[in-house]
Amino acid sequence: MVYSPSTVQDFSQQLAMDRYNGVFAPLEISAEAFKAAYDTPDIGPHIEKDYKGLSYLSWPFAYRYLKEHFPTFYVAFEEKTLGEVVFGSSGAYYLRPYLTDGIKRTVALIFPVMDRKHNSIKELDGRAISDNCQRAAVKAIATFTGLGLRLYAGEDIPKEDEKATAKLPLQQDAPKQTARASKAPAPVKATAEPAGNEGPIAANDAGASNEPFDAKAALTAVCKANPLDYPDGQAMAAGKNALETIGLRYATEVKSWAQFGNVIAAMMTLWAKQNEVVITKTAMTEEIDKVRGTSNVDEMIVALKAFRAKK
After folding, report:
1. What values do phi and psi take at 22, rounded to 5?
2. What is the C-alpha separation between 140 and 77, in angstroms, rounded?
3. How far apart are CA 67 and CA 88, in angstroms?
């Protein structure tokens, strides 16, 4: 059959009407595959931040994950006309990405065309379309496979099961302390005291204690001590960035010493990156384990100072 432009146009319009009416073969992703992607533990090093400090997933990593776990899937876009993927008008442009294997497909998302400040674009150009297509593709991958969806939900980055052997620095579990004769775990005390409280903060590495673990006071103590020697006024900002890196907004969301170790691990990783420290993944993991192996805030500060001194 020889296709003329009018034939192609008619076919495109028919497809558009079919999609509008929900007539397409749905792409199936099993609940097990979705959960595996949603809970994937190695996403921490692939999280980047925009100028506002908002976290987002690196698109090369998203594409790599898609091809490793769903090799027949790819991201496509609804077309307004043949080859034109942008819908809407000035100030309200949007894309409609979806996931497909070439035969079956998902529904299309609505993705606004924005600039780097998250403002709607009033005037299109090729760069804006290209950049937003990449962002829209990552959102489609996250939405339909589950990869990185926790970032949109504001949830913490998951940790691997304790039985897993290979873990990245941001997902290391706190090293278990040597078993004691007593069955009741001895509490670990943070030296910093929040305003208005009497006595030190107590929490053990499993988060069980007579009092809730006060991560805000612990993080404040670390930042005030400034063991990584941040320039004036930047230590507290570094603590906030560490929280955001693992998907948290406030220190009060940290409920145990082990979770607090994740925050400090993120701080160490960010510091090493900012200072262009040359270190292998294995060596960095060992350094993080040393810091996480401490039992209170004072020991942690000393360990952080020792880590900085080596670099």
Report:
1. 75, 25
2. 10
3. 31
**Six-digit token pair at 270?**
């960010």
Q: Quote the distance between the C-alpha of residue 182 and its chain's center.
A: 39
DSSP string, 191-229: S---TT--S-EEE-TTS-SSS---HHHHHHHHHHH-TT-
Q: How many Cβ atoms sit within 10 Å of the Cβ of residue 124? A: 14
Q: What is the pTM of this model?
A: 0.45
pLDDT of residue 74: 94
Helices and strands, number each (H, E), in the chain: 10, 8
**What are the E-state strand segments in the chain?**
47-49, 55-57, 74-77, 94-95, 97-100, 111-112, 188-190, 201-203
Burial 167-185 (b: 16+ CB within 10 A, else e): bbbbbbbbeeeeeeeeeee
Q: How far apart are CA 290 and CA 302, in angstroms?
A: 11
Over residues 39-78, the pLDDT tens digits come to 876 666 656 655 455 556 677 888 888 888 889 999 999 9
> Can you read off the two tokens belonging to residue 199?
């006595």
Q: With contact defined as beta carbons under 8 Å apart, do 237 and 249 qualify?
A: no
Angstrom distances, CA of residue 132 to CA of 57, 89, 120, 308 = 14, 15, 11, 39
User: In whole angstroms, what is the distance from residue 241 CA to residue 265 CA?
Assistant: 12
Pairing mode, if any, of strands 47-49 and 55-57? Answer: antiparallel
Domains of the chain: 14-153 (3.30.390), 187-192+199-310 (no CATH)
